[in-house]
Amino acid sequence: MVTASSTFGGSAPASGAASPSPAPPTIRVRHLWHRFANRDVLRDVTFDVGPGEIFGFIGPNGAGKTTTIRVMATLLEPMAGRVEIDGIDVTLDPDAVRKVIGYMPDHAGVYDRITVREYLEFFADSFRVPSISVVDAVLELTDLGKLQDRLVAEMSKGMKQRLQLARILLHDPKVLILDEPASDLDPRARIEIRDLLLELRGLGKTIFLSSHILTELSDVCTSIGILERGRLVVAGPIHEISARLEAIRAAEAHGHAPPPRYVPPGVRALVPAQAAQAAPASPEAAGVVQSAPVAGAAVAATDPSASAAPQPQAPQPIPQAPSVRRVKLRVLGNPEAAAYFLRGGPGIVEVHVMGGLVHVGYTGTETKIAEMVTHLVHRNIGIVGVEPERNELERIFLEVTRGDVQ
Ligand SMILES: Nc1ncnc2c1ncn2[C@@H]1O[C@H](COP(=O)(O)OP(=O)(O)OP(=O)(O)O)[C@@H](O)[C@H]1O
């Protein structure tokens, strides 16, 4: 019997793929520009997604996420720059790219008046894959088997979204490109989609997904890229970005020159102000041109400096700085007394009282919060509220973006 796991992704790495690997990137985007009318909506976007990663592409409405995705999905020709999926240039060989990607657009429609099985068999036939065995495997993988005889029209939004995912798995693509896969879903459906994505990653798929909802991504993505007004302001593994920002903050707080900035492959800078200074204002200024089909050959760009694939900067070692986390404590009685007892404690970096709350910076894990609470309770200080800092991804997002829209 064909099973989901034997049919899908058997050859790819099943675990541990998030760590840096010498393998070439599965998705390679270099100096991508796009312009609608006379407005640049993508400006010099460059990033890599390694094999087996779940890459979250984050940005506010209108930042350019869908435009980037449509280029990757071969639906839109870039004005300049180069995009390769699994080593294939999307402009030079879009048909080959389509065979290795499964693309789920935002707000995709589904045919309503057929059953779930009929829907999948229809697409399996159009993908020219053996419909019965593959549809069985996809139904099993996406847990839609019980609903296979149900009319699509009668399915919930979450289930329709799951059906969309099932459809793009039929040809067993290596790379999944999902535009806002969890938007409009209730919390349960969102969690179910997240679990399915993790399962697909376990089968070796590389997953690129976009979202403007940070919390739906933070516990599923291995890496992120943040796009603002068409510019990529940061990209890389979440913990590396976080450690770097922490090191920069610590150095600046002590009046030292910031440590050398970590530049993920191809990304210009971590900090928006620097990105704005460093980035060219137009593809013409950057000397970047589009890869264009030329009879049977990979194309030379017109500008010799751009003709070779642009080389990303080698990543610099990331300085190790202990990551400072923050928590706010609401105490009964005098908050200054609580602050007094916490100052100088192991792992406590800073303590101050503001707005009646005790703000504590600490290093280590969240057990440190439990230790602080115990310590204060033993000194007869009652705790009535504990408010840990924002989640890591929210913190990064707020720090590297400026809230600009285009
Ligand atoms: N076909 C088009 N013609 C003109 N402008 C467009 C077109 N498609 C998108 N845009 C503009 O390009 C910019 C980027 O749009 P895009 O859809 O890529 O953003 P997004 O980050 O996906 O936003 P959202 O989260 O709202 O989907 C927006 O200002 C949008 O209005």
Task: Give a quick rundown of the structure.
The chain is 33% helix and 22% strand.
Question: What is the alpha-carbon Rg in Å?
Answer: 24 Å
CATH topology of the largest domain, by name, is Rossmann fold
CATH class wording of the largest domain: Alpha Beta
Q: SSE order, as H and E?
A: HEEEHEEHEHHHEHEHEEHHHHEHEEHEH
User: What strand line-up does the widest sheet have?
Assistant: 6-7-8-3-9-10
Question: Which CATH architecture of the largest domain is right?
Answer: 3-Layer(aba) Sandwich
Estimate what percentage of residues fall within beta strands.
Answer: 15-25%
Low-pLDDT stretches are 1-6, 10-17, 261-277, 291-320
Total beta strands: 14
Which structural class do you get from the secondary structure elements?
alpha/beta
Q: Report the end-to-end length measured between terminal Cα atoms.
A: 52 Å
For the sheet with most strands, the description reads: 6 strands, mixed
Notes on the structure:
A 6-stranded mixed β-sheet has the order 6-7-8-3-9-10, sandwiched between helices. A 4-stranded antiparallel β-sheet has the order 2-1-4-5, covered by helices on one side. A 4-stranded antiparallel β-sheet has the order 12-13-11-14, with helices on one face. A hairpin with a 2-residue loop joins strand 12 and strand 13 (357-363). It is built from 15 helices and 14 strands. The longest helix has 16 residues, at 187-202. The protein folds into 2 domains: 4-228, Rossmann fold, CATH 3.40.50; 324-395, 2-Layer Sandwich (Alpha-Beta Plaits), CATH 3.30.70. The protein is α/β, with parallel strands linked by helices. The chain is globular. Helix 4 (116-126) crosses helix 5. It has helices at residues 4-7, 65-72, 94-100, 116-126, 131-141, 157-169, 187-202, 215-218, 238-253, 272-278, 283-286, 304-307, 335-342, 367-378, 392-400, and strands at 27-36, 39-49, 54-58, 80-85, 88-89, 101-104, 175-178, 206-211, 223-228, 231-237, 324-331, 348-354, 357-363, 383-388. The termini are far apart. The chain binds adenosine-5'-triphosphate (ATP). Adenosine-5'-triphosphate is lined by residues 36, 41, 59, 61-67, 212, 406.
